[in-house]
Amino acid sequence: MPRSIALACLCSLLGVLPSGTAEAAEEEDRKIEKLVREAQKAYDAGDCKKSAETLQKAFELKAVSKLLFNIARSFEKCGEDEQAIRFYERYVDAGEDTGLVRRASKALERLKQARAARLAEEKRQQEEARKVEEARRDAELAKVATEKAQAEARASEAEERSRRALAEERRAISRGPSPFTFGLAGLAVVGLGTGIAFGAMANGAKGDYSASTNLAAKQSLRSTAEQRALVADLSLGIAAASAVGATVLFFLTTSGAEPAPVTFSAGPGGVALSGSWP
User: Fold this and answer.
1) Angle at the Cα of 240 (from 234 to 246), degrees rounded to 5?
2) 3-state secondary structure of 259
3) Which of 39, 97, 201, 267 to pair with 222, CA 20 to 30 A apart?
4) Does 112 share its domain with 200?
5) Residue 204's CB: how many other CB atoms inside 10 A?
C-alpha cells in the first residue's frame, strides 16, 4: 500500500472528526490510526493479506471509503483477485477521490479481464480433459471390441478345424472297409484252406487206419489222423472267427461306427470269437 495513500487515509480519518469530540471518539481514532500503521507495516513487509485484514478492522470502526481502496490493493497484491474486485467495486460506488476512483476502475477492468482469461483457460483445459477422457474411453472400448472379435474369430477357426477334421474322418471311413477287414478276410480264407486240406489228410489217415492190420501201424495212423483233425478243426475255427470279424468290421467301418474290439480265445472245442460293443 503506497505510503501517500496511507497518510491520506489518516488525514481523512482525522479530518472528518468534529471539533470537541469526546474522549471515546479520540480513543477510537487512535485505534484506527494504529491499525492503519500496522497495515502499512505489513504491506511493506510483503504480508498483504494481513494488511487487508487489518484495514478491514479499521473500516469496521469507521467507514472511510479510502480504506476500501487500500483493502482492494492489498488483496490484489496477495493474489486474491475476487476479494480485490469486490472491494474495488465498493470503492468505485462510494469513493469521492476522482483520481482513486479512476485507478480503481482501471484495476477492476484489468482484474476482470484476467478473471475472464483464467475462466476461459480453465474451460479450455476442462474441454481438453474431457476430450482426452473420451478418447481414452473410446480406445478402451475399441480394444475390448477388438479382443472380442479376435476371440470369436479364434473360436470360429477352431470350430471350423474340428468340423473339417470330423468330415475328413467320416470321408476316410466312408471310402471303404478298414485294412483290418481285408486282413481278417484273408486269414479266414487261409484258415479255411488249411482246415480243408488237413481235414482231407485226416480222412485219408483215418481210411489207412481202417485198412491197416498192423497194430503198431494202426496206432501211428490213428495219432496222425487225430493230429491232422485237430489242425483242421483249429484252422476252420480260425477261419470262422476271421470271417465273422471281417464281416463285423466291414459293416462297422462302412457305416461310420467305431469298430468293436475283437479278441480270439482258444477252448476245448477250438477257437472262439469274442468281442464287446459299447
Assistant:
1) 130
2) coil
3) 267
4) no
5) 14
The reply to whether 189 and 268 lie within a common domain is yes
Enter the C-alpha cell of residue 211: 485198412
Closest to 69 (Cα-Cα) out of 96, 34, 35? 96
Provide the pLDDT confidence category of residue 170 given band limits of 50, 70 and 90. Answer: confident
31 alpha-carbon distance from chain centroid: 70
Closest CA to 84 of 75, 93, 92: 75
CB-count burial class (<10 Å; 0-12, 13-18, 19+) for 33: middle
Q: Identify whether residues 186 and 96 lie together within a single domain.
A: no
Does a structural domain hold residue 154?
A: no
- For the stretch 211-236, pLDDT in tens is 777 777 777 877 887 887 888 788 88
Number of domains observed in the structure of the chain: 2
Q: pTM of this prediction?
A: 0.45
Residue 34: pLDDT band with limits 50, 70, 90: very high
Q: In this predicted structure, what is the pLDDT of residue 249? A: 66
* Domain end position, chosen among 89, 117, 145: 117
Domain CATH code at residue 65: 1.25.40.10
Residue 231 belongs to some domain of the structure = yes
Rounded Cα distance, 140 and 198, in Å: 84
Cβ(95)–Cβ(101) below 8 Å: yes
Nearest CA to 62 out of 34, 83, 85 is that of: 34
pLDDT tier, 1 (very low <50, low <70, confident <90, very high otherwise)? low
Which three three-digit cell numbers place residue 171?
Answer: 470321408
**189 in the same domain as 105:** no
Give CA–CA dist 51/3, Å, rounded. 13
Question: What is the extent of the structural domain holding 226?
Answer: 177-275
* Residues 184, 112 within the same domain: no
d(CA 163, CA 182): 29
